[in-house]
Design the sequence.
């Protein structure tokens, strides 16, 4: 481990100093754009006002013969648009692919000053983060980039899950992590053919009772991994996210998967289809009734100590802290979304 002082030193002479306190940004949905398709690039100006993060996807789902067009398309969409407080991210190809190096060598000099976050797929351990960290510092220094580009890891291999705490601790450049259920299922040898969500056969069967049909209760395949990721992220001050939900014909299941992740501590999810933007916005903005109740707790305990009863429920320092999580998030949402600001009364 590096000493604390060395941990925050730039990794190349002339590179910007790493963030000690990363910028606070609302990132309820990371919206994926395939940048090699011109029609999709044309939608970016309208998207910027609808989503919290626009991500140009260069990795999986981009055909091998379109990889270079996707990279160029991303640079073009980054240059042509002004993103304001909407995040600009890219998902680059994985480290052992033939495209990763040129993704970095072309994108950072061209649009590094606009790029907030690089999403790195198939991260296995801290060595992957160290490599990208060093490379980014060299490229930032060479290109005169003024603020550090952050790294967001996709947690989508068995080895990555095993090493999740080391990955979280690897660099001050770490922004957060997303669960990648499709690659993770393959890497673990799970017997599924889906992108996220549940499975009808992953059930607990109720005990047998005479003359009663037995019911199977579907369980959440991702509970363990999301919990492990949330603990790793929050203990290092990073942001955890649920990743993709592939069944666009089932918005209810998408919403349920997103909501489980939200309740467990995640701050957003990927939107791969325009319909998922609204689902993510709804789920990852705290519910107005919860915000109102949380504000009552904060008002009743101005210094956050002691115990009070509200609507028959005991509140103390620990519920005050939970309430603060919800109200702080509601304030962030309200700063961006005037309609919700009014609903929250903030
Ligand atoms: C995302 O990249 C996934 O593999 O689920
Ligand atoms: Mg993947």
Sequence:
């Amino acid at each position: 481990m590096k000493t604390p002082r060395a941990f925050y030193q730039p990794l190349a002479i002339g590179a910007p100093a790493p963030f000690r306190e990363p910028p606070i940004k609302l990132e309820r949905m990371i919206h994926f754009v395939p940048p090699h398709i011109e029609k999709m690039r044309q939608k970016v100006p309208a998207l910027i006002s609808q989503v919290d993060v626009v991500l140009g996807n260069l990795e999986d789902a981009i055909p091998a013969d379109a990889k270079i067009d996707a990279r160029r398309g991303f640079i073009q969409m980054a240059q042509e648009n002004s993103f304001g407080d909407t995040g600009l991210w890219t998902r680059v190809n994985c480290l052992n692919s033939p495209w990763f190096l040129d993704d970095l060598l072309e994108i950072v000099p061209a649009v590094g000053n606009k790029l907030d976050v690089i999403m790195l797929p198939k991260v296995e351990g801290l060595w992957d983060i160290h490599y990208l960290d060093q490379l980014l510092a060299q490229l930032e220094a060479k290109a005169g980039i003024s603020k550090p580009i952050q790294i967001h890891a996709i947690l989508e291999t068995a080895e990555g899950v095993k090493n999740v705490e080391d990955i979280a601790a690897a660099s001050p450049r770490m922004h957060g992590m997303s669960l990648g259920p499709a690659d993770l299922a393959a890497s673990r040898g799970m017997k599924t053919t889906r992108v996220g969500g549940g499975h009808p056969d992953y059930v607990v069967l109720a005990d047998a009772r005479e003359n009663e049909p037995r019911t199977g209760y579907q369980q959440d395949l991702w509970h363990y991994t999301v919990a492990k990721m949330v603990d790793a992220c929050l203990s290092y001050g990073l942001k955890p996210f649920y990743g993709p939900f592939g069944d666009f014909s089932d918005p209810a299941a998408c919403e349920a998967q997103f909501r489980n992740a939200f309740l467990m501590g995640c701050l957003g999810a990927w939107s791969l289809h325009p319909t998922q933007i609204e689902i993510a916005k709804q789920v990852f903005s705290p519910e107005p009734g919860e915000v109102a109740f949380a504000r009552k707790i904060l008002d009743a305990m101005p210094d956050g100590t002691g115990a009070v009863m509200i609507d028959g429920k005991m509140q103390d320092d620990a519920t005050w802290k939970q309430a603060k999580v919800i109200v702080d998030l509601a304030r962030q949402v309200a700063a961006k979304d005037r309609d919700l600001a009014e609903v929250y009364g903030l």
Remarks:
- The chain has two domains: 4-284, 290-344.
- DSSP finds 15 helices and twelve strands in the chain.
- The mean pLDDT is 97.
- The pocket of magnesium ion (ligand 2) is lined by residues 60, 121, 154, 156, 180, 182-183 (CB under 6 Å).
